[in-house]
Amino acid sequence: MNNKNYESENKEIFEKNEIDLKELWKSIVRKKKIVIISSTVIFFIGTFNTIKNRIYNPVFSGSFLLLISDPIDKSSEAEETFYSNIATNKVSNNVPTLITFLKSPYLIKDLANENNLSSDSLSNMLQISQIKIANEFADVLKINLRINDLDKGQKLIKDLSEKYLNSALEQKRKKLEDGIRFLDNQAPIIKKRNQEIQKNIAKFMVDNLSINPLQDGVNIKDFEDELNKKIITLEQSIKKMLVIKDKVSKGLLSATNFKETVFFEGGGLEISSDGNAALVANIALENEIESARSKYTEESRYLKSLKERLNEIRPRLIQSQLSSLNEAINLKRIDLDETKKQKSKILNIFQKQPELINQYDSLKEELESSTQNLIALNKAKEQFQLEIAQSTVPWKIISSPKMNPIPFEPSIPKGIGFSGLIALIIGTLLGLVRDRFDHVFHDPGEIKDSLNKPILGNIPFLSFMESIRESQTNVLNIFKEYTESKVIDKEKNYERFVWQESMRNISTSIRFLNTDSKVKSFAVTSSSPSEGKSAAVILLAKGLSDLGFRVLLIDADLRKPQLHYRLGLNNIQGLSNLLTNPKLNFEDVIQTVETGNNWFVITAGQRVPDSTRLFNSKRMSDLTT
Predict the structure, then answer these.
(1) How far apart are CA 205 and CA 212, in angstroms?
(2) What average pLDDT does the structure give for the chain?
(3) How many CB atoms lie within 10 A of CB 431?
């Protein structure tokens, strides 16, 4: 509920504060004379001032275009080094800062003094803007000069263009000289740093016994691959020997001899075993047995003796061969163990290589960077020296400086248009202000909103009442001629009809104004004199009388009474006499109006010095009640 009330209150406040455009327009229309006259006067004053300044105080405009970068040679910018940019404090063209510098007293002070101007006044005459090409800002500045003296402007704009070019060259030389000094100061520091890095690289090589850790890592990896191959070969050789040993032990195979080289730290040893004698003897006996079998029987003593000798030699031969094989296998295993130890050492060395490589690469990168910096520094220094020798102006005038002989300001079309706009605005404001302080109600709605009271009715304006204030004639006679005229006049007929309807509406409103107690009297007044009270009250009384009401009209304006003039009555005795003379009765001062028996009037009576005291008297109170 509270929210609804709050919203309702806010809505009412908003509606009260809302600007009513219709009311503003009505105010302007009501005060159109003031608006038109004031606007016309201001317009002519503004137009006259524009033409006067055009003739006696014209402003001439001149300009030239200044190119602040080289649009063709961009290679030099791409080749510029870090040190050349730092040494010359070079940054991208900051146009707002550059414009401020071009208008600063630091640059134009001498030129201003030569032309009897202050730095501030010359700065105010200058307008500098960046040219836009294809919706993009170009490195071109438009220098515009506005001055009252055409001849002085011609000289000043030419001197200004030369001043900018000379200043650009001077600033360039100063930057290059400062840059060379900066590079000279930096060179010893970079050389010292370069030497320190070289010493660190040499110390690194000595400490790690390595010239190039990356190549050492490659060599170590290759050696590891060779050791892996050797380990595989030895393991395969041992497996083969074990197979041979098994066959020899079973008498299925005979081995001759072996030769093996065993490696160890510090060198190697070649070991060999000879088993050819036993084997040859064994083979000879077997051949002899085969030959004897072709000559002798198996039971012969000679063949049996050969077999016995063979049986004696063979076990010794097998034992000798197995011993040789065992010795060869052991030697192979020793060689395998030594190879694996070498591989383990190589792996330990290889694991340290990445860190060494990183340290070495870091030192090399520092050395390379330092060397490049030293080369760039020397190159920048040579470039600066070459540019100083060339003395090339960095800026160019691409549009020659010239002044337009036709005045730039004031522009007559713009001045007339501006004067018209200002005149209209000021005239409208004056009309609105005048209407705001004009304490007159212009329609019934304003009365209702201001007084917050209901409106009982409207008394219309009648054309015949327009001039009665000055003539002080009898209103009833004029009204009679107006209503009884036989001339057909649609406008008068319409006014008569509207007036009659208005009177009926007022009488109806008064009749139903208060249902509890009947209204018998009411006052007609105004906030200031000459607002039409007398005419209005006569029309109201006339209308109510014609409708059958008994009407008593009392003229309470004791200072400037008007009713007796308007109604053609005498003012010998009236309200003032009744209030001051207790012997007079109410009926003694009443007069009857000629138009009817139900309309009576009490005029104001003789003038009195203190009318306010009479209105506050008891006799006045008894009269009104």
Answers:
(1) 8
(2) 78
(3) 24
| Structural contact between residues 67 and 140, judged by C-beta atoms closer than 8 angstroms | yes
Reported confidence tier of residue 43, pLDDT bands at 50, 70, 90: very high
- Pick the closest to residue 611 from 530, 570, 557, 571 (CA basis): 557
Contact status, residue 434 vs residue 33, Cβ threshold 8 Å: no
Which residue reads 């300044």 in tokens?
A: 53
Task: Please name the residue that has the structure tokens 């919203």.
Answer: 7
From the list 178, 193, 338, 325, the residue with the least C-alpha distance to 247 is 325
Contact assessment for residue 575 and residue 589, using Cβ atoms and an 8 Å cutoff: yes
Distances from the Cα of 298 to the Cα of 198, 310, 313, angstroms: 93, 15, 20
End-to-end CA distance of the chain: 47
| Number of neighbours of residue 283 by Cβ within 10 angstroms | 12
Question: Can you give the C-alpha Rg of the chain in angstroms?
Answer: 66
What mean pLDDT is predicted for residues 426-450? 80
Per DSSP (E only), the strands in 212-350 are 258-264, 267-273
What is the distance between the alpha carbons of residues 246 and 603, in angstroms, rounded to a whole number?
167
**Sign (positive or negative) of CA dihedral 579, 582, 587, 590:** negative
Tell me the two tokens of residue 159.
């001197």
Q: For 243-285, how does the pLDDT look when each residue is reduced to its tens digit (9 = 90+)? A: 888 887 776 665 544 444 444 344 444 444 444 566 677 677 7
Token pair 């190589």: residue: 346
Tokens of 432: 């609105």
Residue 596: what are its φ and ψ, rounded to 5°?
-170, 165
Please state the φ and ψ torsions of residue 272, each to the nearest 5 degrees: -135, 155
| Cβ-based neighbours of 431, under 8 Å, separated by 6 or more | 27, 28, 31, 32, 34, 35, 38
- State the residue for tokens 């306010």: 612
Tokens found for residue 258 = 């072996």
Give the integer Cα–Cα distance in Å for 70 and 102.
19
> Alpha helix (H) ranges present in 391-472?
412-436, 444-451, 468-471
Structure tokens at 229: 């191959």
User: By the 8 A CB rule, do 273 and 328 touch?
Assistant: yes
Using CA atoms in the order 154, 157, 159, 165, what is the torsion angle rounded to 10 degrees?
Answer: -150
Q: Residue 598 has which token pair?
A: 């139900």
Strand partners, 553: 601
Residue 329 near residue 245 (C-beta atoms within 8 A): yes
Is residue 268 classed exposed, middle or buried when 0-12, 13-18 and 19+ CB atoms within 10 A define those classes?
exposed
Residue 188, preceding peptide bond in cis (omega within 30° of 0): no
Closest CA to 346 of 227, 237, 432, 458: 227
**Quick one: angle between helices 490-511 and 533-546, nearest 10?**
80
Torsion of CA 455, 461, 465, 467, to 10 degrees: 110
Question: What is the spatial distance between Cα 326 and Cα 336, in angstroms, rounded to a whole number?
Answer: 15
CA distance 360 to 214: 9
CB of 602 within 8 A of CB of 552? yes
Using pLDDT thresholds of 50, 70 and 90, give the confidence band for residue 91.
Answer: very low
The answer to whether the pTM exceeds 0.90 is no
Residue 221 and residue 422: Cα distance in Å, rounded? 94
Residues 347/352/355/359 CA torsion (nearest 10 deg): -120
Residue 440 is encoded by which pair of tokens? 């007159």
Q: Is 475 exposed, middle or buried (0-12, 13-18, 19+ CB in 10 A)?
A: buried
| Cβ pair 313, 321 in contact under 8 A | no
The DSSP letter of residue 205 is H
